[in-house]
């Protein structure tokens, strides 16, 4: 019996967009968070793990390119035919650095064979104009997704979970 879904999963979306199964490859690019390093606060958000919620990363220590290939080896154990990847900079705040540093770190992975896009986890208060311009430039040659950590829109809850940014425009 075929089940008819009333929604598309992310897997469905990627299959339509890229023509085949596509995997997010989590990478630790060594970024910190302004809520941990003292830029806006200390201690981080209450929900964030020590690794910045990047617990799925197989091996966060090696250089970025090596991490990419270790992650792909891990994926290929279960899905050996996968050939398309989205580099996923997930943990901490992956735009919390000067744009030159961001560019250098991202490009260690996004130029690898099979990479069709990049997913970037960040905070809404860490997207200066020059970073947005770089991401717009990237979007001309690959799929770019920016994941903004929006755990709540209520200031009181934001304070309670130590988000350390405002929701004002």
Secondary-structure element series: HEHEHEHEH
Instruction: Measure the end-to-end span.
Output: 49 Å
Instruction: Summarize model confidence as the mean pLDDT.
Output: 85
Most strands sheet: 4 strands, parallel
How would you describe the shape? globular
| β-sheet strand percentage | 15-25%
Numbering strands along the chain, what is their spatial order in the largest sheet?
1-2-3-4
Low-confidence stretches: none
Number of domains: 1
Number of helices: 5
The computed structural class is alpha/beta
Q: What percent of the residues sit in helical stretches (DSSP H or I)?
A: 25-40%
Q: What Rg do the Cα atoms give? A: 17 Å
Number of E-type strands: 4
Protein name: Radical SAM family protein
Pfam families: Radical_SAM
Domain Radical SAM core: 43-168
InterPro entries: rSAM, rSAM_sf, YhcC-like
Describe the protein in words:
By secondary structure, the protein is of the alpha/beta class. It has one domain (10-160). The chain contains 5 helices and 4 strands; from the N terminus they run αβαβαβαβα. The chain has a 4-stranded parallel sheet. The termini are far apart. The model has no long low-confidence stretch (mean pLDDT 85).
């Amino acid at each position: 019996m075929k089940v008819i879904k009333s929604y598309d999963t992310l897997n469905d979306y990627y299959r339509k967009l890229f023509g085949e199964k596509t995997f997010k490859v989590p990478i630790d690019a060594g970024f910190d968070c302004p809520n941990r390093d003292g830029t806006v606060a200390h201690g981080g958000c209450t929900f964030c793990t020590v690794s910045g919620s990047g617990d799925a990363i197989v091996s966060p220590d090696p250089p970025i390119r090596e991490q990419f290939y270790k992650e792909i080896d891990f994926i290929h154990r279960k899905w050996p035919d996968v050939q398309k990847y989205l580099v996923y900079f997930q943990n901490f705040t992956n735009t919390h650095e000067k744009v030159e540093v961001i560019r250098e770190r991202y490009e260690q992975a996004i130029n690898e064979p099979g990479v069709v896009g990049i997913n970037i986890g960040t905070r809404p208060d860490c997207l200066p104009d020059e970073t947005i311009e770089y991401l717009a430039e990237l979007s001309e040659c690959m799929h770019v997704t920016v994941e903004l950590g929006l755990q709540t829109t209520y200031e009181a809850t934001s304070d309670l979970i130590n988000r350390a940014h405002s929701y004002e425009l």
